[in-house]
Amino acid sequence: MSARLVHVGSAVVDYVYRIDALPAPGTEKTATSYARVAGGGFNMMVAASRTGMKVVFGGQLGTGPDGDFLRAAFAAEGIETLTPPSPFMDSGNCVAMISRDAERTFVSWPGAESRLTLDMMKPVQAVPGDWVFTSGYTLSYPGSRDALTDWIEALPAGIPFVFDPTPVIADIPRPILDRVLARTTWLSCNTNEAAEIAGAGDAQTVAIRLLTEHCPRAEGVVIRAGAHGCLVRMADGGTRTVPGFKVEAVDTNGAGDTHIGAFVSALARGMSSCEAARYANAAAALSVTRHGGSSAPTGEEIQEFLSHGDQATTAPGQAKATAT
């Protein structure tokens, strides 16, 4: 594959605790397991890389134990870092508590990934054939949002730009969000994030508003609905609900990242948007059957899973998008 993913989001270290349920206020729980893993945007990059796409990272890593840990994780996955480490601070981290029902709760601490300037990003050059991605996390940081938005707006017109607003969308100033959406080629978000941008309604109605009112240059939008799959709406008017797959989830951390990484990788290989969505649904389904955020499957594992026949759940066409 000649396409390259240029990821200009953020990566952090996840400190993952598995517990039976969240503790009540003022009480304590003992975790059944603990792990230190690379997280944040690393999960999306791994999904794209393991499905055959060359991936490079244009965000910031820090100087210190967490930055060193992330660099080692990047190297193990064959992901090149384009920018030098921050000399001022270490990379950030996130405490993730995974409960028995596979849901997760996060507490994060920003680090070097929250500080970006255009000078720092000079080594990050997108060229024809590249796909560029960022997430709402980097845009939520006061120390990175302005430079990153300027850099995105300056991308050559022919470079596809993919945006995931993430659950922190409410922390992104609306003028910044509007500028990024105006340059977006593909928007991938969950139902809550879609509603935060375009208002409540069924998924198809919200998808139409996203395209007509917020993403004028987009080829399409994907509204993810977890285990139920996703809805794909194209700028030319085509809509398709793509069912998810029935699996036994043990850890949903990183499922959305896996979906987006696999979707972009599939599009870059020439799949249609609906084929890419089904491929991404399968990737996300496999990822939730494994522990850890960077649990994305390989392309071979996805194809094997898809070859097993009809495992689809109900499609999300009538799912409501509700603001958080």
From TrEMBL:
GO molecular function: kinase activity
Xref: InterPro entries: Carboh/pur_kinase_PfkB_CS, PfkB_dom, Ribo/fructo_kinase, Ribokinase-like
Gene3D superfamilies linked: 3.40.1190.20
Pfam families found in the cross-reference section: PfkB
Carbohydrate kinase PfkB domain segment(s): 4-295
Coiled coil start-end: none
Domain of life according to the entry: Bacteria
Family from the record: Belongs to the carbohydrate kinase PfkB family.
Protein name: PfkB family carbohydrate kinase
